[in-house]
Write a structure and sequence with these properties.
This protein is mainly α. It has helices at about 1-5, 10-55, 60-65, 70-85, 90-105, 110-140, 145-205.
Length: about 210
Amino acid sequence: MDSFFQDFGLEHLLVLFMLGVSLLLLALTFERLATFAWVRLSLGKGRGVIEAARSADLAAARAQAEGLRQPLKSVFCAGLDRATGAVRGEPARAMARENKRVGGLLKARTWILATAGALMPFVGLFGTVIGVMHSFEAIGESGQGGFAVVSVGISQALIATAVGIAVALEAVFLFNVLNSISGKLSRELALLVDELLELIEVHRTHGQR
């Protein structure tokens, strides 16, 4: 084991670690994009519930909401159940509570991207420092110096910093992309919720259930 770490230094292990983090970030991004696509489909079908509440009554809208995909189903059903009297409570507060849960779902695990973007440059720099220290130790043991000898070890050590910066850039870019998409989905959901709450208020004002 000692000979392994001697031949394959800590800086190399850090480079492999950062490359593994890069793959993890890509996998996380694809998982988040799949979740966003599912929510997008759910939002697309939510328009049917709005139209049912507009043209018919809240009972028809509730029946329409039963066929929605999650997570929009839980948001609409929470409000319509209370609006139709099936469940006691205030529709606006119930839908706001479910809407917060959807927001948490959209932002789940994106903190990993932000954390990687902040830490990876320091991990790469740490690997470079270790590599430079090993280079100078090797020069001291061999008794040979000169720029040619030093430059080889330092150039190899700087690879760790380059990889760390590259992974950090990847993490920040992916975080911003996911954050932008989740923000857009949250706004679209908020608009649907506001529109349904407006229709619920209209039905209540006219005494319809």
